[in-house]
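Before the break, one more example. Copy the sequence into your notebook; we will annotate it together after we see the structure.
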Amino acid sequence: MSDELVRVRDVMKPGVDMVDGMMTVSEVINTMQYRNNKSIIINRRHDQDEYGIVLLNDIATEVLAKDRAPDRVNIYEIMTKPVVSVDPEMDIRYCARYFKRLGLSRAPVIENRQVIGIVSLTDLVFKGLCRKDR
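Here is what the structure looks like once it is written out:
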């Protein structure tokens, strides 16, 4: 890899689906704008609260596989909270190490306590490591 520093900000997806925890799984799926994202961020209820996250894998294992009605399951019931996040200025090499250590495949990018994007291992490799302008 080149000595050029590539930051999370450079490779993250700026589009994130953010929802209220009281929404049902059906409502969330039907309102998702970024269907290529494999996660949904759950908004904070107030300034001192933390964000949550639901991966599509969570919906598959906690709703679909358990034969639960998606219109009767609130998203807060299956979310992980607090969410593990990354800083937009983090070097992608450290981000990859962080993901490995914590067993993550993606995380929201948070700046000044606001979600500004999401980054995945796929983004780190294809947009960071394999950049065409190198």
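The two ends are 9 Å apart (CA to CA). Residues 80 and 107 are 12 Å apart (CA to CA). Try to locate both features in your own notes.
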